[in-house]
Amino acid sequence: MAARALGGPGDALDELSRNFTYGALGAGNGSLSRAWYRRNQIHLFGVFLAILGNLVISISLNIQKYSHLRLARQQHPRPIFKSVLWWGGVALMAVGETGNFAAYGFAPVTLIAPLGCMSVTGSAFISAVFLKENLRASDLLGMTLAFAGSYLLVNFAPNITQAISARTIQCYFVGWQFLIYVILEILIFCILLYFYKRKGMKHIVILLTLVALLASLTVISVKAVSGMITFSVTDKMQLTYPIFYIMFIIMIASCVFQVKFLNQATRLYNTAIVVPVNHVFFTTSAIITGIIFYKEFLGAAFLTIFIYILGCLLSFLGVFLVTRNREKELLPQSYIDFGNIPGKQTLDKIQPDPNGLSYGTLPDGSDSTQSQSGEKKEA
Known about the structure:
This protein is mostly helical. Helix content is 69%, strand content 0%. The chain has three domains: 40-162 and 298-332, no CATH class; 164-295, no CATH class; 338-379, no CATH class.
């Protein structure tokens, strides 16, 4: 009682214990039952925001892609930032990311983070419908696996409700599990940064691991900021606590450096490789963060954990199938326009010969390089 009167550690532990509430198993409490819906209303609202946000991001990416293609067809293309359509896509991107941000305030990290597969699969479907891109059999299989994995995630993610207050975040920060995790993460980050900066090693695994390590800080801070804003709206104001602004600064800084390393990866490697690998690394980092920092699997049964992992693996496989070889299919076929050559009848656009060293052939079938060498000999 004395500890409670003084606001000691007893109060903090009591508050943490009240934050974790699991639905009791019993009749009518199964998946998709009425009791299940009642118990998971807040989580389902977060899932709805996350899925809606990812679909809006998919639409945004396709709008921006369409604006680039339309400008490329123009004889005198203007800068992309002068395109109203492109800015509309950017605005939709902001709306989608806002939906993802808000989702973390209503549902666990381990539930929201894997749903990022909806953005990849949704983008493939939208591009096939509106941009008339090919919808392959692997795309349909990947979408099916991603939807099946998402269904398992929604049903078997941790059934845990947390009230994210400033005091809760402060208590999590001093936990020994998180302190050990942060120390290990800093050591790994410094080692990888040394190889990246000093040794010039820019392997995709190194770059995307750096992104994933920063993503863990992003997820912690996004969940904290979003949760404290939600708590301020529904219960008690939390925005006056310094921890809120510390988390906000961590969120912005980690996002900026994430974008830096991710851009480096996309410049050096094929997008069809970067997207699935980054999704797997980011989701894995977010899940570990949810388990260690927010203790979201506390008291979960082994079967629940197993099916949850299966759902993650299905979503990973779905993203891989959707992005596999897609970049190669989108590459335009190059050509070389020779124009008018005096004394020669040439085609308007002569395609490169893939089986030889020449840049094409003349209409009579003679090789252009051979004719050039012959002219040199005659000279």
